[in-house]
Amino acid sequence: MKGAGNDLFKQERYTEAIAKYKAAQAYSVENKDDLAALLHNIGLSHEKMNDLEEAVKAYSEAITLKDKYIKVLKRRSNLLCKLGRYQEALDDLVDVVVDEIKDQQKKVAVTGVNGFMPGGFQMETSQRLVDILLGQTEVETQKVLANHASCSPPVTIVEAFLRMFNGDQVSRIWKGLEPSAVDEQIAQGKTDDLKGYMAALRDLKLKKYDAIVKHCTEEIENPDASEENVLNARFLRGTMTFIWTLSSQTVEDFIKVTESPLASNKMKSSAYLKLAMRHTNTRHPFSKSDTIQTISEDYSKAEELWVENPDIYYHGSLLLVDRAVPLQGLDMLEMGIRFCAPETSIMMKTFFWTLQLTITNEDSVRNNAYLELKKLEHEFDSAECHEMFGQALMAAGGDERQAEYNEQFDKAIACNPQDPVFKIKKLIFRHWLGENGNLVKEDHALAEMDSFIETEGPNNLAYYHIGQMEILRGNAEKGLEALEKSIELTGSIHEIEARVAAKLEMIFYLRVNSRLKEEGLEDLADQLQNLTLKQPFP
């Protein structure tokens, strides 16, 4: 009967195959493994017919009969993800990941190859974990937003975003690198009567961000507005809403810019870049595999329209590094440095040499990268350049470079003394450098974080770091409470998503860790913790 069912399955006659498999069950009542295998085949047949609920039922019965039925757990997890039942999908994946980590260690014992591969489980499982966590992040983020204060644009987030662009029209006007239509009125102090796009430009120049979107919307909805002002208002509104909400309106504004005959190639290039970036926010730890083609197309259009656009190469390289292909990121940066004007290339050059300093083990290459950064330092045009140099020094030199990376963070703080983010990052990096499982140091780090909050006020990144440290010390409940506080204090939807995703990922790995310890695999649990929980920023 089972053989007949298999033949029908191969012929894609799935309904008939199911009937044969069910008939075969009568001959296997005493053998649970055989019954489980038949139920797996029944589930697979339902899955082929896209009857996902019935497939899940059959897989569930099979798992009940056969403990640790990993092949079926994988299939059920995948279907539960497709059905939007993300927590159940993660429950299955805990068993799968634990099994694959154990299996890998058996191979290590046989081959004699030392070391713990990142994640410790198969690429297919890793991608499934990403997809499930993405889905659950979307659901949980919407829950947070439903009870969250309005996501207005925090000044520090707006200005950090604008600093990261050198070719973009909005950033260049904000930095004073290009003239604006309201410069004369601002110089004369005659700006009170400005309306629509002109009022939005005034607020951008004066660094008053709360009403920019409202002023742009007034211009766009004004039937008497000029087409040029409407175009500029759309680009500015799209940029501002991208920073903290990334709504469908954001996408619509940028698409209309790309379609406008009035838009310059430079503006269209910047719009396509931001359309690509909507899939690749660098703070977000996950990215859907089905968006890669769209991202590539938008980047290509941006480059075709303006090959000297420095922002393409900088943000494109960030994406490549984020996808764990830093050598390709270096190639893109090198191309950008060659094509773009020197005055727009400082961040690219900084990122290029900090990557060289970070990813190579060759002393000569590291030394050369360090010397190039020291020569470039006097040209650094933002706090982020000093931050990149400081992070690279930390990664490359450890305690030996402590004074130098502290100096770089101090310079970043001096560039933006009103922004506490660089102060908190300096503390966080120092804590990770000093972290060697020494609870005294961790206690000291927690005390420093508490002192920072008392002095500077509540800060979402500080609470995120406290959460990580508490979890690493085994205080999962206190750690998760701190992560919740971090989410509560976050002011942009991008950061809310990043914090929610990081929390969900930590919870998953805590469960895997716990299971490994239950099975007496303490060393594996510790190695997994080092790889998955000790990451400075989400």
Automatic annotation (TrEMBL):
Listed GO CC annotations: mitochondrial outer membrane
Pfam families assigned: TPR_12 (PF13424)
Localization per Swiss-Prot or TrEMBL: Mitochondrion outer membrane
Coiled-coil residue windows: none
Top-level taxon: Eukaryota
Matches recorded under InterPro entries: TPR-like_helical_dom_sf, TPR_rpt
Gene3D superfamilies in UniProt: Tetratricopeptide repeat domain
Protein name from the UniProt record: Mitochondrial import receptor subunit TOM70
